[in-house]
Amino acid sequence: MNDNDLDRIEQRLAELSAHIDAAKHEQLSLIAEFDRREGWARGGFRSAAHWLGFRIGLGQVAAREHVRVARALQQLPHTGQALARGQISFSKVRAITRIATPETEEELIGLARCAPASYVEKVVRGYRRAERLQLDRAQRQHQGRFLHTMTDDDGMLVIHGRLPAEVGALLLKALERADSAEAPAQADSAEAPAQDGSADQRITSAQRRADALGRVAEQALSAPGPMQRGEPYHVVVHVDAEVLADPAAPGQCGIADGPALSRSTARRLCCDAAVVALAEDAKGTPLSVGRKHRRVSTPLWRALQARDRQCCFPGCERPGRQVHHLRHWAEGGETSAPNTLMLCDRCHYLVHEGGFTVKGEAPDGLVFCAPDGRALCACSVPPPLPDDPVAALQVEHAARGLAIDAGTSEIRWWGEPLDLDWAVHGLMRPRRPVGMTVPGAT
Question: How many angstroms separate the CA atoms of 127 and 111, rounded?
């Protein structure tokens, strides 16, 4: 391959990259409009980012970034125009939109046109560090909180984090209480000589804190939670049997000593609940009270957790916390594995009160439908493309009057080192509001 071939490849690569960036602006504009009109809600998705992950195949982080940039560009017209013309890359726009305002975007565009993406990222990080220094201590603590965990090569869990002062105090108190409960036993065992002849292994204070953290976790998990089959609290709902069997039927439906409920809500709550049959006369006097029944058993719960692993709603990746009956038990449906599936709280709401439906047999015969009757695919289908999508993109841009070539996105940089302090100081200097005039200025 001679130099002419390399030059041709270089020119072609630079031009194609500018076309892709110009197309990226159109994609972001469509994302912003789709998000503004909440088009993602039609398919039961939680957000535009959730829809992008399912329909377009973006990762969660990338999807959220696309939505964030799309929203930011609605307030930054000059930045959007520079991207639409292929003059700056999406990587630079992604960085700029983290700090840009209508007053600073032109300066940042100038930086992006004259510096590589790595310099733009450094300036943005420097600016954000300078902003953080201006926050008061409480805000810095709140925004700087984090907790990271990782498993090292030995299988040990490594914990690294920063907690606000009040949260740290709570944790220390919890560790102190958990440690004091076992301190006498540990002290006795520490004084005892090792039985196997090994070296004395006294327990250090750091080891005691590690043991105490384990006991804090055990105590937290000992209380029934949403993923356990315990009953930490009860909410009593009164609903007539006729209402459960037919939501259109008249009858009582409401929380005890509380507000009335819709029929669909009552059916959702009774999908997996302890139900007591109560016979009353015309005056409401109880005649007989049956036993609690119909709640999903612990073995079935475990089987559904192992089978479904997560919420079964198309595109949802949340843990399944609710058991849904495909055919409600009030209509004669069985509380069995083929007639039940796992849904998260939100999706369980959608298939009862949200107008969505699910039919078939779990786990492989399920068909979810939107309120308008459209079937929701279990996996996204790629859209049809022309035989030469690049050529089609070039034709489209030419029709829009975009003159894109290999020099469109070329930066005006000769290798000068970055003066980070000067760049950040320039961005943070006070600015006059738009339209303000200075007395004496000509």
Answer: 13
Backbone conformation region of residue 197, classed left if phi is above 0, alpha if psi is from -120 to 50, else beta: left
What mean pLDDT comes out for the span 211-215? 87
DSSP 107-144: HHHHHHHHS-HHHHHHHHHHHHHHHHHTS-HHHHHHHT
Condensed to tens digits (0 to 9), the pLDDT of residues 153-210 reads: 777 789 999 987 778 888 888 898 888 766 554 444 444 444 444 444 567 888 888 8
Report strand pairing: 357-359 vs 340-343. unpaired
CA distance to 5, 7, 8, 9, 16, per residue, from 2 (Å)? 5, 9, 10, 11, 21
Least confident stretch, 224-238, 265-279, 377-391: 224-238
pTM for the predicted model, two decimal places: 0.59
Q: How far apart are the first and last CA of the chain?
A: 60
**Residue 95 three-state SS:** helix
Provide the phi-psi class of 243: left if phi over 0, else alpha when psi is between -120 and 50, else beta.
Answer: alpha
